Amino acid sequence: MGQRALAVMHGVIPDEQRTILGSLLPAMENRGFTVEIVGVDDLDSVDLAGLAFICVTGSPDSVYDEKLNWVAPERQFLQQADAASVPILGVCFGGQILASALGGSVSPSPRPEHGFTEIDTTRPELVSAGPWMEFHHDTITPPDNAEVIARTEHNVQAFTVRRHLGLQFHPEITPECFDAWRIGFTTRKRPIGESGVDIAAVAADIRRRAAAAAADADELLGRFLIHAGVTAPVA
């Protein structure tokens, strides 16, 4: 298995790309992976050969927004990765487009979720109960062949298909990552707090839980690698 890990970004300015990867970036690099960051518009330049895995990150956009000319090509890229048996870790929007690429769908959530939330999990050895950081307004309907392994009352939180793992929450969250959400996404059309979310309270919780959240993200990445059958270059 190769030592390259690919992180897919959606409209993130170059200066904020590593920050938006949050605690997942050191979790990857500390295991010896070389992390290649690529914008969604440059996926046609990616060589799937030798990739250990792909991490698809978040976005303020929606998979079902037909005005977005990059969603269909990204979906096709993920289908090609699946056909090449490259494991995919999808985070929030990344989990949503992974579900869509594999035969599921995405729609507006009846109950958007924001802030740290405990989830109901049937496979705690892969995805624990958290609490995990939620910040989304859409919801996943997984493909028929998926195993849904975590939920909240209104939203699927985690699913597996073969070697892939799709997540609705944000394990990568750090205080710096949350700050970067405000300025890093070139496609953000509305302020991050426009939905009535108490942004100051959420930011305070992120700061308070920073160390625990980073440890949880590191553990989750390790569990994903075991699930996917990926051997890290450095134990």
Strand-residue proportion: 25-35%
Named at the architecture level, the CATH assignment is 3-Layer(aba) Sandwich
CATH topology: Rossmann fold
Number of helices: 7
Number of domains: 1
**Helix-strand topology string:** EHHEEHEHEEEEEEHHH
Mean pLDDT: 94
Work out the oligomeric state of the chains in this entry.
single chain
Q: Name the structural class.
A: alpha/beta
CATH superfamily grouping:
Class I glutamine amidotransferase (GATase) domain
CATH class: Alpha Beta
Please list the strands of the largest sheet in the order they lie side by side: 2-1-3-4-10-9-8-6
Low-confidence stretches: none
Descriptive overview:
- This is Glutamine amidotransferase domain-containing protein.
- It comes from Gordonia sputi NBRC 100414.
- Pfam families: GATase.
- Residues 14-177 form the Glutamine amidotransferase domain.
- With 235 residues, the protein is of the alpha/beta class.
- It has one domain (4-228): Rossmann fold.
- It is built from seven helices and ten strands.
- The strands form two sheets. Strands 2-1-3-4-10-9-8-6 form an eight-stranded mixed beta sheet, sandwiched between helices. A two-stranded antiparallel ribbon has the order 5-7.
- A hairpin with a 4-residue loop joins strand 8 (147-151) and strand 9.
- Helix 3 crosses helix 4.
- It is globular and about 45 Å long.
- 42% of the residues are buried.
- The mean pLDDT is 94.
